[in-house]
Amino acid sequence: MSYSQLVDRFTQLHHFAHLGAICGWDRATMMPDGGNEARAAALAELSRLLHERLTAAEMSEWLAAAEQQELDAQARQSLVEMRRQWQQASVLPADLVQAKSLAGSRCEHAWREQRRNNDWQGFLGNFREVVALSREEARIRGAATGLRPYDSLLDLYEPGMRCQQLDQVFGDLQGWLPALIQAVCERQRDQHIQMPVGPFSIERQAELGRDVMAMLQFDFQRGRQDVSVHPFCGGVPSDVRITTRYDEADFTQSLMGIIHETGHARYEQGLPPSTLALPVGQARSMGIHESQSLFFEMQLARHPAFMQRLLPLIQRAFGAQPAFEAANLARLYTRVEPGFIRVDADEVTYPTHIMLRYEVEQKLIEGSIEAEDIPDLWAERMQQYLGLDTRGNYRDGCLQDIHWTDGSFGYFPSYTLGAMYAAQFAAALQRELGDFNQLLARSDGLEAVFGWLQRNIWQQASRFDTDTLVRQATGEVLNPAHFRAHLTQRYLD
Amino acid sequence: MSYSQLVDRFTQLHHFAHLGAICGWDRATMMPDGGNEARAAALAELSRLLHERLTAAEMSEWLAAAEQQELDAQARQSLVEMRRQWQQASVLPADLVQAKSLAGSRCEHAWREQRRNNDWQGFLGNFREVVALSREEARIRGAATGLRPYDSLLDLYEPGMRCQQLDQVFGDLQGWLPALIQAVCERQRDQHIQMPVGPFSIERQAELGRDVMAMLQFDFQRGRQDVSVHPFCGGVPSDVRITTRYDEADFTQSLMGIIHETGHARYEQGLPPSTLALPVGQARSMGIHESQSLFFEMQLARHPAFMQRLLPLIQRAFGAQPAFEAANLARLYTRVEPGFIRVDADEVTYPTHIMLRYEVEQKLIEGSIEAEDIPDLWAERMQQYLGLDTRGNYRDGCLQDIHWTDGSFGYFPSYTLGAMYAAQFAAALQRELGDFNQLLARSDGLEAVFGWLQRNIWQQASRFDTDTLVRQATGEVLNPAHFRAHLTQRYLD
After folding, report:
1. Would the pLDDT of B9 be above 80?
2. Which key words are in the record (chains A, B) (predicted)?
3. Can you spell out the DSSP letters for A110-175?
């Protein structure tokens, strides 16, 4: 009885969240600038509604009563996830939720222009409020859960993950990654790569993107692909919206971006239809989500054996070129080069971008630095990790990401956790089904790969906690050794 | 105190309606088919929420208390419009609202395919429920207001309008329109028109559409234009979304369609910013809305003097052609030809399409015919009014319109009321500012026209009832004689 009341309520919340997801997508892809104030207000009102309904007085009664009911194992796990969502929502006052949504919408919207104009001072004007509200959020969450403020934000994206474990993971990385980057750069220094010659028209790039999405079995009956400043995967599982951005001089960025977002999309499209409205039916965590996009982009699409699949599509889009040769493309797509932009980074240098952001946002939330201190710390670490000078270049520095603009602190670590999970999943899958060289030579090889992900990840949704999900799929919990082995094998063997 | 509570509540409703407007637009323009079930459920949930919040117990208390407050004239009129919306919403049970929204979404979505397939039987399967729920709605509304069931629906779109007045208006039309159609066809029989030679690429038509929207001062910072099966004007005043459909063989349909929707859009974009969230700040009625689109399309854009403005844009889009000559275009755009499709009809035969629909929907709602009787009655009247045989051709007959698919009965008369108001506004404007021949010869002529509409219609929003609005703008209430004079002057003089 109480459990079914909870199911009804979460189904209602799911319907409201649907409207927010589509209007959020619209804001990033379709909406003209003049629409932003009203949109921000509408989305803030929705945030308030969702918060009110999720935290209404009857909810705690229903949860307590349902926990006394006779329920099967699936309903029991469903209830655990319901309580988790309820708990995370109910510690925050509705006013704070709405204020943060409003400040985040404003800051994010203005950032699109400010980033283009390298306008750090303008950005600060909006961003200080986002930081203040996020600190307040972390303080309240931390007090309620007994966690450190930053841990309490981390837990929103990676349930169960703590700074303590992350400090170990990133500490371990710092021990071997700089040396590995150096060794790879050394090794690639004299490598000859034939560069594709542009321009590559946006129309043709879009066609190539659609071809690749079709090959990766994106369901176009339940989703679409558009353009936005910052690529993302949004919408709802029945209608997944992925975006990309195009550069006429370089088709690799949009191609790999689309493959990446298609990984996110297939996870969403592969969730079990019967529980989409419930917390237990949603994706497990941001790290697991990212593991799917990075599985698609890094493990699969940049694997040398995948070039045979990609090549005909690239040639169909752009005609023949000397650069369009499998071994050359494989070298191009595994080229390691320290750079400013996280989303354009290769998989070897990428974790250094995350180490930097993890440090900045942890210090920012816990108050040991202020918003105006970010550029200096950013410049220092970029110099130290990658030997790059970012002073004064905010556009390609601390203004490059969308995450902080709306106060999504605690999210960045998920990217590197995702890379590690992806490597671990790829290792387990290849032990089970044969390595990618064998698999991708088979005509049904992609089906086999997607079948493994469907069985082990997508259709599991949130039926188990992350450790259990990963152990069932791979035989062990998170083990960063697989990521190291992957990089070593691909870049140094 | 109570009045400000009402302002807060209506502002909240406005924010929620924003999300529905954008998601409704998305459904018609962007959404893949597989997304429809979840979207319909989400929009139905939103309908229920809006209904609940609008009709919550405290609302009737606040309304009654506010009506005792000392308020200025503007707040007093605002309160009248609040009560009207509240009254119309509160007579319906929430279950009926949600059931109708759900049945309407399903029927409308399936109709897109069914219309293509001429599938009347398939359509009936969904449509019977829409009719049953609409009759129930009309019965409940009628019982609460003492109006006839159909009048109670009419009043939703045209506050104050009744069948009795419409029967007079349409009775009058029936007296002179058939003879006028005959006389015009007679007169145009030997008229030579040079037809533009296609195909006209969709890209170029879209460019032309954007050029014309810019000339008509559509604010692209607060709106956009896309493609849908059935053209409409949606979105919100800060972000107005108009749509069109393209036919490569004929650019006139999309061109005039865009001009028509731009008229709707400018009304929305011209509403006073300070009261957008309140009933008093919204468009006056569907008939007044349609008067703006028809003012743009019929009074302005098909006026011979407007061709000098349109010609350079058409030539820029499609190059030079013998057909692209002002007098020839003017003849083309005032060509009268009985046809199957309402939205493609000329302004002379158009009212016959409305007379037919008015009769059908009135009888359908009041129960003297059933859904399955529509095709026969349709065929009979099309024969009688326009001499056309529609038997078996549902696609171009009773399946052609979107309105009935989601139960929007009572809306159709607004089109002809709009044509009459448009003629009346055009007559008043020309008395005041000079006739269109003079005005459109002036470089600032369009500004003068839009300024008149802005002052007299757009910025008045719902500050006055329809009769008062029209009397202040034109010196008299609705007077169909202006429409007759317009047709006679344009087509027979």
Report:
1. yes
2. Carboxypeptidase, Hydrolase, Metal-binding, Metalloprotease, Protease
3. HHHHHHHTT-HHHHHHHHHHHHHHHHHHHHHHHHHHT--HHHHHHHHHSTT--HHHHHHHHHHHHH
Residue of B14, B19, B47 for testing the chain A interface, max A β-carbons within 10 Å: B19
d(CA A6, CA A471): 30
Q: What is the mean pLDDT of residues A429-443?
A: 96
Residues B255/B243, Cβ–Cβ less than 8 Å: no
Residue B1 has pLDDT above 80, yes or no: no
Question: Dihedral, CA atoms, A456, A462, A464, A470, nearest 10 degrees?
Answer: 40
Residue of A46, A222, A239 to mutate for B, most B C-beta atoms under 10 A:
A239
Give the residue among A7, A461, A466 at the shortest CA–CA distance from A277: A7
Please count the helices (runs of H) and the strands (runs of E) in chain B: 20, 3
- Each domain of chain A, given as residue ranges in start order, spans 2-90, 118-493
C-beta of residue B192 within 8 angstroms of C-beta of residue B322: no
What secondary structure letter does DSSP report for A442? S
As a whole number of angstroms, the distance between CA B455 and CA B466 comes to: 15
Mean pLDDT across B204-229 = 97
The pLDDT > 70 percentage for chain A reads 100
What's the CA gap between B260 and B233, in Å, rounded?
9
Q: pLDDT tens across B334-380, in order?
A: 999 999 999 889 999 999 999 999 999 999 999 999 999 999 999 99
Let me know if B479 is exposed, middle or buried by CB neighbors in 10 A (0-12, 13-18, 19+): middle
Letter string b/e over residues B123-132, b meaning 16 or more CB atoms within 10 A of that residue's CB: bbebbebbbe
Rounded mean pLDDT of A129-154? 96
Q: Are B427 and B488 in contact (CB under 8 A)?
A: no
How far apart CA A481 and CA B9 sit, in angstroms, is 56
- φ and ψ at residue B403, rounded to 5 degrees: -55, -50
Closest CA to A275 of A10, A43, A36: A10
Token digits of residue A145: 């859960």
Distances (CA, A) of B69 to B2, B4, B59: 8, 11, 15
**Which residue of the set A108, A261, A268, A297 is catalytic?**
A261
CATH of the structural domain B149-493, one choice from 3.40.50.300, 1.10.1370.30, 1.20.1250.20, 3.40.720.10: 1.10.1370.30
Give SS3 for B295. Answer: helix
Q: How many CB atoms lie within 10 A of CB B252?
A: 17
Locate the chain B residue with the closest alpha carbon to A48.
B12
Cα–Cα dist A233/A225, whole Å: 9
pLDDT tens sequence across B92-116 = 887 898 899 889 989 998 999 999 9
**At CB < 8 Å, which residues of chain B contact A?**
12, 15-16, 18-20, 22-23, 26, 30-35, 37-39, 41-46, 49, 219-224, 235-239, 276
Write out the E strands in B21-145.
Answer: none
For residue A475, how many other CB atoms are within 10 A of its CB? 12
B5: three-class secondary structure by DSSP: helix
Which value does ipTM take for this structure? 0.90
Write out the CATH class of domain A118-493.
mainly alpha
CB–CB contact B222 A18 (8 Å) = no
The helix/strand count (H/E) of chain A reads as 20, 3
Amino acid found at B236: V
* A410-438: b (≥16 Cβ within 10 Å) or e: bbbbbbbbbbbbbbbbbbbbbeebeebee
Q: What is the dihedral of CA A80, A84, A90, A92, to 10 degrees?
A: 180
DSSP single-letter state for residue B443: T
Q: Which residue in the block uniquely carries the two structure tokens 């992806």?
A: A422
Residues B149-187 pLDDT 10s: 999 999 999 999 999 999 999 999 989 998 999 999 999
